[in-house]
Specification:
about 220 residues, mainly alpha, about 0% strand, globular
Length: about 220
């Protein structure tokens, strides 16, 4: 039904439909709240999505999926205290959930603080999901911030091979560059440019290469 509403550009009708479904099926309220929040994001109304999730968490306290949905929408710099509160609550509810551990680790990396704790969370998540690109990316990101470029390059190489995500590829290239391996860096950059032509994320990497005329 939501797909039909979306194709017909009737997302407001989809919201009303889901509100009625929450009345009809209260045991599915968590899922329906999350679906409504996604629709609001599709409508570029992040504030309304956050307000809805606030309402949802008040009505269904300690629901990890609702809390996680809100975590994904909060700005890690503007809403730092709120994020800390929610991420701590998530790990209290489900201390061994790899997605929640990874979310906390990545948030701390973005904020460039408590990096030892962030690395512990990322490594713990990776033990449970060793082939998850997003967790490998987080571990690589944290290791890079800790100046452990060898670990960063290894984790990010694996993450990029699994996901082919250009942003991960850029982090991988930077980690290799910081190791001083300019030949490998040039090869990685060339590969990124071939796979992701015209991607603006690659532009900063070009400035790391010295012109051939400079020795």
């Amino acid at each position: 039904m939501i797909s039909i509403f979306a194709k017909q550009n009737q997302l407001s009708d989809a919201l009303r439909f889901l509100t009625q479904e929450r009345v009809n099926y209260p045991h599915q309220a968590s899922f329906l709240y999350q679906a409504q929040a996604e629709i609001l994001m599709m409508m570029n109304n992040k504030k309304a999505a956050l307000r809805l999730l606030d309402e949802a968490i008040k009505n269904i306290p300690d629901d990890p999926e609702l809390i996680y949905a809100q975590v994904l929408l909060l700005d890690p710099f503007v809403e730092r205290d709120r994020l800390d509160q929610l991420l701590t609550l998530l790990l209290d509810l489900e201390p061994n959930h790899p997605a929640y551990l990874n979310a906390y680790a990545y948030t701390l990396a973005l904020q460039n603080r408590h990096l030892d704790q962030a690395r512990q969370y990322a490594e713990q998540a990776l033990e449970m999901e060793p082939d998850q690109a997003s967790i490998l990316d987080t571990l690589g990101f944290v290791a890079y911030l800790q100046n452990d470029f060898a670990t960063a390059a290894q984790a990010l190489q694996r993450a990029y091979s699994l996901s082919d995500n250009p942003s991960i590829g850029v982090r991988y290239a930077r980690a290799v560059y910081m190791q001083g391996d300019l030949s490998n860096f040039s090869a990685i950059l060339k590969q990124l440019q071939q796979k992701h032509p015209n991607d603006a994320a690659l532009e900063p990497l070009n400035s790391l290469l010295l012109p051939k005329t400079i020795h």
